[in-house]
C-alpha cells in the first residue's frame, strides 16, 4: 500500500496531459497559476451548486410541499407566513454561492490582463538589457503576455455560461416551488 502512494505522484506527473499542462503553465508565467487557482475554486462551487440542485434541493422541496399539503389551514395569516418563510429559505439555499461564482468569473479576465502586463514588462526588460535584435528572447515575453489573456478569457466565458445556466435553473426551481405551495383545496 505504501508503494502505491510513493509511485502515484510519479505516475500522475508522467501522464501526457499533466506534461502538457505544465508546459502551458511555464509558457504563461506565474499569473497562470493564480488563474488556475481561481478557476478551480470557481468550478468546485459550480459543481457544488449542480449537486445541490439535482440531489439535495428536490428532497427539501418534497419536504416543504408535503408539510404544506398536510396542513389543514392554507389561508390564515400564520399559514401564509410559514409559506413565505419556506420560500425565503428556498431562495437563500438556491442562490447560495452564486455571487461568489460571479465574482470569480469576473476576476479571470483581470488575472489574464495582469499576465499581459507582466509579460510586456518582461519583453521591455529583455529589450532594454539585450537590445531588440534577438527575437527569441522577446518571444518568451510575448508568450507570457498572450497566454494568460487567452486563458483568462476562456475561463471567464465558460464561467459566465455556467453561472447564467445556474441562475436560470434556480429561478425556475423557485417558481416551481412557489406554485407547489399554493393552496390546492
From TrEMBL:
Assigned keywords, A-Z: Cell membrane, Membrane, Protein transport, Transmembrane, Transmembrane helix, Transport
Cross-referenced InterPro entries: ExbB/TolQ_transport, MotA_ExbB_proton_chnl
Sequence ranges assigned to domain MotA/TolQ/ExbB proton channel in this UniProt record: 73-178
GO cellular component: plasma membrane
Record's subcellular location: Cell membrane; Membrane
Membrane topology label: Multi-pass membrane protein
Membrane-traversing stretches: 31-55, 103-124, 144-162
Tagged with keyword Transmembrane: yes
Biological processes annotated in GO: protein import
Domain of life according to the entry: Bacteria
Family, as annotated: Belongs to the exbB/tolQ family.
Annotated protein name in UniProt: MotA/TolQ/ExbB proton channel family protein
The organism of origin for this protein: Vibrio ouci
Lineage: Bacteria, Pseudomonadati, Pseudomonadota, Gammaproteobacteria, Vibrionales
